[in-house]
Every structure is written in structure tokens, then in C-alpha cells.
Amino acid sequence: MENDDAGNSFSPLRRSQSNSFEADELNPPAPKSRRVTVEDVADEGEVVDEGEVVGGGGRYFKQCSDGGWALREGETEFERYQKYKEGMGEDEWAPFSAREEWGLTEWIVKSLGQTRTDEFLKLPITRNRMQASFHNNQSFLKKVDELPHGAAWSCKKISVQGNRMDEKGELLHEDVELWMRNPVECIKDLIGNPLFKDQMVYTPARAYTDSAGLHRVIDDMWTADWWCDMQKKVPEGATIAPIILATDKTSLSQFQGDKTAYPVYLSIGNIAKEKWRQTSARATVLIGYLPSGKLDCFTPDERSLTNYRLFHHCMSLLLQPLVAAGEDGVEMVCADVLIRRVYPILAAYVADFPEQCLVACCKENRCPKCVVAADERGDPLDSPMQDPAVIKGILEKRKTGQHPAEFEEFGLRTVYALFWANLPHSNIFLAFTPDLLHQLHKGIFKDHLVKWCLDIVGEEEMDARFKAMPDYPSLQHFKKGILMVKQWTGTEHKEMQRVFVGLLAGAVPSQVLVVARALLDFSYYAQLRVHSTESLNGLESVLAIFHANKDVLQQLNIRDHFNIPKLHQLSHYVQSILLFGATDGFNSELPERLHINFAKEAYRASNKRDYEEQMALWLQRQEAVFLRGSYLNWLLEQFQSAPTNFTRDHGYDSDLDSEMEGPNTVPVNTLPILPEQRTVHSLAKTPAYPQHSVQHLVTAHGASMFLPALKLFLCNHMPHAIIAPGLQDHFDVFRQVVITAPPNPLISESPRQWHIRATPEVLPGRGRKPGSPAKFDMALTSNGIHHQKIHVNILLGMRVGQVRVIFTLPRQFGTYSQALAYIEWFTPLREPDRSSGLHQLSCSTCRLHRNAAVIHVDEIARPCHLIPRMGQAVDRGWTSANIYESASDFYLNSFIDLDTFCMSAID
């Protein structure tokens, strides 16, 4: 489709087909009018020295090179649209009659298909009561099509001639369609979106945690090396838009049929990864559907190579506008209303391993990034990276009939028109980013490590250990074992990792446990959203530990070799992080989530015939409605004179505790500290179990030493109390305490929240109402010492206890506002086990009774998870419900979540 010019961009846009895109005519260069420094991208930044800025969170930034200069002020698309509406004399709701009709439009577009829309609009109650300006689906869609949308869709028909003959002896051919949008126009929409203003960066910088620049940290792409290095290759003052591409074929049919789609997604590294990872923010856009036909016109032996060639041909057509834009730059209005000359350059490519080989034009028994030999991928080698110029030269020689030895050595395919060959400044081999989902969670862990350990432990014993695993809030319990799981997803893989090392302890030889620990350490280090020199050294160290101990699997006849492609990919993680930032910004889980919105839902909205065109039109209408909603939100912000105070919704899980509902929770802390600087412990406003007797606490909660522990507490904290506690007293008891702590920047920008439960067993009720086992969670207690710095090893000086009762003192003991908890102690943490790396501890007793205490609730730092020492064979009488009472020796599970891992692994 031909692109409308700027003056007509707000008139109704019509769809048509065209055979190719024309690159935008570049604006002539203009003199710089303002120099933009890194201060413009640091939240609440404060200049402390030339080229150095301290931003929010105590970070120091040093600008890498001159870039991001503004040429002049401009107008964003929203501002231009606002002037257009005013010039036309229309209100903000036009072409809809009012706010209510716009709300109805949003709901219809998001929730109803075309048939259902017709049915809904023809209902008597709809026609008589609503009196909308549209009365059927046709008139409704006509209104929607008047809304502005993003870059237009066009279709390129490609005829592929095969090598098979038909009945007449003629070569068969197949016509396929490439649906595409101009990627430069999509980048303009992204970099100029006013809603991304606070998450947009225009120049790279190095980030440090200290003013001397000794402790570097890497998270977003602008803090890594690629952007800094690339800035030196473009003209002074230029703004780079680092392109992030993702491709992944997906199935559209659910239960029958073989319909597929091949989406191509695009985002830019200028947008903070926390924003473009949110699918609802639409910071990653769909720029095309590649052909996904079967190519039955080819014989099976030629079909694979033809798919390679067709892929590269279509990607060349799709990305053609980026060639001129990357060489000369394009003036774009940015989210901060300033015009910059932007150079869109391919930086990162998100894909699984087969897709990477397809892009790199190599066989799947080779590495798509480096020149490692096919039989040496299991060795800890530092192989040189592939050079695009060298690969192009080898293929050119092959095309002319020569037979260079490197062609077979590198496992290349005879694809001569590489889509990335002419993209300026790009290196496709460096661009491939780590894939946590397919390489680590599914690949190394599930497909290899779990299989190896199953061969050693045995299926029955492995299942028994998973069944007996103690409960923990949010931990998935494999109550039927893992062999009964029919469909595995990344969620199940990650849930297994949370308990796998402690589960293996005692069941496998110590050296195998070292191997498992090293791979799990690597997985957890790789998932951090912020990296430091320490964490990158940790990645390299644990990978070296794996290679130093992996031979034990060959000695046990579990593996013949380690020539595993996904294992070799781990050697490239540190380099990729240094170049492009933390791996959480490039996980292939994002494209798979995007498939739902941009492929599967679009397909379901079609009539399943010639569906690509219908999908493109459906997506265009969805985008138009989204953009109008974004425009209205932006318009509202312009009229707001001051921010509105609001209370953050902490999102309590009503299934865990029905009493913990929003305004019914009250903090039990009393110190006058700002919320973002302290840990808040919240209880329900009304106790779940009012006036429970001491005898009930002993029998239902297992609090056998409740009275002695409470007497000791009162003696220490209320020495003048006249009344001593006894069996006649009753206490208000709570189900759980919710702890909200400041964010751990290594993991997330959101506050951390934990539930610590102390609920007795609930017997099955009448009818089908099920019961539930007792839940008395383990917790780390701080003895009143709170560590505000996340890099402090918080395990030092902490003690583990099992929380059995959360209660408040009755009035007869005097006024005491703080909530209390009855805890049964475990022994202090011992040195980590040499094989598993886990701290060991045991039940603490005193005179044959559990060592117990009553403490303030705000002395509980956070929950923790203990895994019993199961030995070579787990006791078959142990269950998830009774294992804490049945076992006596435990491991502190440092893999239960990333936060606990950081506590134990990163000082």
C-alpha cells in the first residue's frame, strides 16, 4: 500500500496491494540546535561532572560518545492530530458521538467478532436504549476505519517454481504472499510515541554504582557496549535506533488443520526493556507475515534449502527500507517533541536455535555465531566469531562454481541473497541473543539435565521426591510426580528448577550434584535483570565448574559426548550481555506471548480462508482503536494540572486469604519511614480466628510450647505485667502476614511481596467442598536487624523458624499494639554443603521439646523454603503435608526464587 503523506495522515486510510516498498525520501540535514546529554534520559538526573550524571537509585552515568543531538523542535503525531481535530471543528470523540459510544466501540472491537457485532447491534435493547450512530457491523466498521492507524499493510505476491513435474510434464509452482509494513514507518511510530517519553533514551552511557566508575552495571541496551561502539561509526550527533527483530513460526489451528503464520516483530533499544516487554504497551510491533506454505512443488530433498532461500528473499523485501535509512539517517520527531536524525541499525535478533541457523545460513550441527568445529561444541573453547564479510565472500565463490574449503567447514547452505548482507553497520552473528526459554529452561534443564538425573535416580524415586516436596507460597507442587505431566511449558520447567538441587542431594553422586548445581547457578545468574562484573564472573565461573566435572556423566555411561548445540550456546552469554544488556530483554517468551495477539486471535477473527489479508485488516483496526485510546490518555494528561494521589493495589491473592482485601489490611510497622524505604508487614483488619483458646493453638496449630514462649516474651517486653498467661486466655489469630519490601533491582523494579501463612488443617466439608492441609510456612527472622542494601548477604546473622501462630495480645495483658508470631526454631545455618552449595540446618530442641519463641511479626524478614535431606531413597511415608514434622535435617533452598539466590550467591 502506498503511504499517505503527512498532510493526509489523519484522513480515512484505505488498503491496497503493492509489489514493493519505496524508501522514504530523507530530509536534508539541518544544523544542530541543541545538544542532548545523558541527563535527558536519567530519571531525576543531576549533573555532577562533564559527561557524568547521577540518576535515580544512586547510579552514575558516563556518556560514551556524542549522540542524540536535537535538530529542532517538532510535533508528535498526537499533537498534530489534536490540531487536525480542532481545525475540523471536531471534539475528541469524533467520529463517535460521545464518550459512552467510544467506550462501546472499544469493547466491541476487543471482545466481539463481526457476526457477534451484527447480532449485538440488532438486539432491540441495543437499538432502542443505546441509539448508537452505527446500527450494524458494516456501519460500525466504517466508523472504525475512519480512525488513524500506524504503518499501512501491503502484499507482495511471490511465485516459486519447483522441481517436481505435473501430469503434463510441466514444472509445478506455488504462489505465496508476503504481508509487510514499512519498518522505518514503524520505528517512527515507536520513537515518537509520547507515552514512551519517560522510557525513551537517545544516547548511550556507561552506568556505575559509584562515582569513581569502578563498579559498572549493565541492564538496558543503552548501558551496554554495542551502542557505544556503534555511535562512533555514525556522524557526530546522530541518534541510533537499535533494531530488535524477532521471528518465530507459530501454529494457528488448535485442534485440527495445519494452518501456520510466520510473524516478524520489531522493537527498538531506545525504549526501556521493562516497557517493551509489556505486550499491552505495544512497544513491540508486527511488521510482517512471512510465507509459511508447504512448498509441495519441490521434492523433499530440495524443500529445506528452498525454505532457506525464500526466507531470505522475503526478509530482504521486508527490510529493504532500512538500507537507505541506516546509511543516511531519517529525521524523526521523538517522544520528547524534538527532531533528531535517526539511524535505524539492526542490533539484536531474537530467535530459537533452528531459526538462528536459518538466518545465519548454516546447518543445525554448527554454531550460528562462531567458527567452532561441529565436533567440538561440548568443549570450553573460546572460538572466534563468524565474520559477515568472510561468509559473504565464501558464498560468492561458491556461487561462481568454486569450492572453498570453508563452505563445508562452516556448514553453510547455498543461499546467495542474504537479507542481512546489505544492512548497514550490522553483524548478524553478534546479533543473536541468548534464549532463556529454549536454551536454558527447556533445552539444558529439561531435555538434558533432568534426563541425565532420571537415568541415575530412576523414574519412581524421582517422582516420589517431587511428591514429597514441602509446600511454599506460589510453588507448584507436582503431586503426581513429573512423569504424569503431558504438556510441558516454560512455567513447569522453571518450577522444577526451584527445587531440583535439594531434591537430588543424596540420590546422585556428589560430582553429579556439582554438575546440576553449576547448571542451575548459570540459569539463575542469566535471569538477572541487572548485571555487574560480579554476576558476569559468576556466569563464567559456574560454566567452568560444569566443564570441569561433566566427565562423571560419561563415567556413569549417561552421556557419550557433550557435543550439544544448546550447551555450546552458553559460552556466548557473557559476550551478549556485555554487548546488548541483560538477557531478560531478549527472551523468546515475548514473541510467543505476542503470537496470541498478533496471530492466533487475528486468525480466529477470520473466516479461515485467505486468512492473511483478513488478519492484516483485523490487526489494523485493533491498532487504530488502541492508538485512539492512547491519544485520549495523552490528552487527559495534558489537562491534568497536578498528579492525583492514589493508593497502590498490592494485589493480594484472595485464594490464599479471603480476609486480605485491599482496605481491610493494616500495616503493623510503626516507624515513621517512607514506604519505599522500608519493609511493611500487613495483617488483615479483622482476624480470621477470633478468640481462639490456648488448647486450640496447641492442638490445631501444633504450638506445643506456646505458653512458655509467651511467658518469656512478656517477661522481657512487659516486665510490669500483672497477669500471667494461662489456659483460660483467648487470642485473636490471623491466617497470614503479607510482607511488602523495597524492590530488588537485580530482579524487578516492582516492590517485593511475600505471604507467610500459619493456617491449620481444614477438614473436608459437606458435599464436594474439599479440605486443605495445614500450612505453617518457614521464615527467615532478622532479630530486629533490617538490611536495606540488597547487596548485603542477608543470610548472615539470620535464623530460620517455622511460623505456627500469628496473633495479637488480648487486653488483659495491657496495651501492646504490635502483632506477634509464635515460631519454632531451627539450628543456625551451617556452612554450605560442598556438593550442593546449600546451607544445612536441623530442628532445634531443648529438653526434648521444640525450641520456640514469641517474636514481633516485623522481625520476620521473608519466607524461606526448606528441603529435607532425603538420603538415597526418600521415605515413602513422607508427604508434602507431613514432611516438616517427619524429617529432622534440612537444606535451605537457595533456588526457591531469584531473590533468595541473590542473597546466597551475590554478596
Describe the protein in words.
By secondary structure, the chain is α+β, with helices and mostly antiparallel strands. It contains 29 helices and 33 strands. The strands form 7 sheets. Strands 4, 5, 6, 9, 12, 13, 14 and 15 form an 8-stranded mixed β-sheet that branches. Strands 19, 20, 24, 25, 26, 30 and 31 form a 7-stranded antiparallel β-sheet that branches. Helix 15 (436-457) runs antiparallel to helix 19 (510-526) and helix 24 packs across helix 25. Residues 1-51, 641-665, 667-675 and 784-792 have low confidence and may be disordered.
Short description:
With 907 residues, this protein is α+β, with helices and mostly antiparallel strands. It is built from 29 helices and 33 strands.
Blueprint (SSEs and pairs):
Elements: E1 46-49, E2 52-55, E3 59-63, E4 72-73, H1 77-87, H2 99-111, H3 114-121, H4 124-130, H5 137-144, E5 153-165, E6 171-181, H6 183-191, E7 205-208, E8 216-218, H7 225-231, E9 239-247, E10 250-251, E11 260-261, E12 263-268, H8 273-276, E13 285-289, H9 300-319, H10 321-328, E14 330-333, E15 338-350, H11 353-360, H12 388-399, H13 405-409, H14 428-431, H15 436-457, H16 459-467, H17 490-497, H18 500-504, H19 510-526, E16 531-532, H20 533-549, H21 551-555, H22 565-569, H23 573-580, H24 589-604, H25 611-639, E17 665-667, E18 680-684, E19 689-693, H26 694-700, H27 706-717, E20 730-734, E21 736-741, E22 752-759, E23 775-776, E24 778-781, E25 799-808, E26 820-825, E27 840-842, E28 845-846, E29 849-850, E30 852-856, E31 860-864, E32 866-868, H28 883-886, E33 889-892, H29 898-905
Helix pairs in contact: 2-25, 15-17, 15-19, 19-20, 24-25
